[in-house]
Amino acid sequence: MNLNGRALDRAALARLAGDVGAAGGVRAVVLDDGAERGIRALEFRTGGGLNFDVLVDRAMDLGNAEFRGQGFGWRSATGFRHPGLHEYRDEDGLAMMRSFSGLLVTAGLDHTLFTAEVDASRYRYPHRATVWNGLHGRVANIPARLLGYGERWTEDGGCVLWAEGEVRQAAIFGEHLRLTRRIEADLGGAEIRLTDTVRNAGFDPTPHMYLYHINVGWPFLDEGARYELPVERTLWQSDSVAEQGVSHVEMPAPQPGFVEQVYEHVPVADAAGLVRPRLVNERLGVYFELEYDTAEFPAFFQWLHLREGAYAVGFEPSTHHVAGELAAREDGSMTFLEPGEERSYHTAFRVGTL
């Protein structure tokens, strides 16, 4: 481990401090005010300048995130709203906009993207011939069962901070999907690693769609920041791109009345199929980088929400293309998990200096 400019192993750290918490660690807390009241959270401090929160009661998603005192996890006006306040069918399926905040908001487990009413006959319940899905599905507002958290020492003398939880999305005469999420960060490091496994724990073939809404905000996002993503081609872009003409590479200052701009790109992957898009802020001398596997997430969306008061850029690896569930069912690209079948996803978030 490199801590405060020194290479330390477990024994050396023990000579300096009676508790790992002097260098970093994971602490369990409960948020206790306003719309956030009652949310369990885990505070990660790596000792390498990276601090971030895991929102246990929000599907183990990532909330606040900072590097060397500079924020990069998007903080919207909604705060980290308690899932008990969430009404899934509210506002014509756009209810997630009242709880949309943080570095990572997970979408799924059986539906992502636009609202859709789809066939539910596979669940064999005559009174529920279809199922209605809101924007980006249900998972982000389901509390996790916390399986554990803490520190794990490695054979080479390093220390890994970790947390693991299970999110269960289930209904009688409906889906039974379970997400197991493990989050790791090295003591002294500046990287967050996610390993997600989604399993069909039911006995019917079940739809599965999955997407990460990874949101970077101010001050990492600022006028002059640069979105770096080698692109082979762009498959789709929202009408607002032509109407507004705002660059998706060089970021402007917050714009009055800005309408979100969304792109579906085909990025250039390396030989292992990995893609590493970045947001670079040369004025602060920092960057944020995502690493994901195109075999696990074959689609990628770039989200620009550069409006005053809600200033953010999004990195969105996805299992399905931007047209959504109805189109995927129609063209045969929809994923169905057989009973007991599972899919795993591996991603990393990195921050650093230029």
What are the defining features of this structure?
single chain; 354 residues; mainly beta; Beta-galactosidase, Chain A, domain 5; nine-stranded antiparallel β-sheet; 3 helices; GH-type_carb-bd; DUF4432; DUF4432 family protein; catalytic activity
How do you describe this structure in short?
The protein is mainly beta and 354 residues long.
Q: Please give the alpha-carbon distance between the first and last residues.
A: 21 Å
Q: In CATH terms, what is the architecture?
A: Distorted Sandwich
Identify low-pLDDT runs: none
- State the total count of DSSP E strands: 26
Give me the Rg, rounded.
20 Å
Overall, the morphology is globular
Assign the structural class, choosing from mainly alpha, mainly beta, alpha/beta, alpha+beta, or little secondary structure. mainly beta
| Tally of separate helices | 3
Q: What is the fold named in CATH at topology level?
A: Beta-galactosidase, Chain A, domain 5
**How much is the average pLDDT?**
97
What oligomeric state do the depicted chains represent? single chain
Task: Please summarize the sheet with the most strands.
Answer: 9 strands, antiparallel
Which percent bin holds the helix content? under 10%
Number of domains: 1
Q: H/E order of the elements?
A: EEHEEEEEEEEEEEEEEEEHEEEEEEHEE
- Overall CATH class: Mainly Beta
SS strand fraction? 35-45%
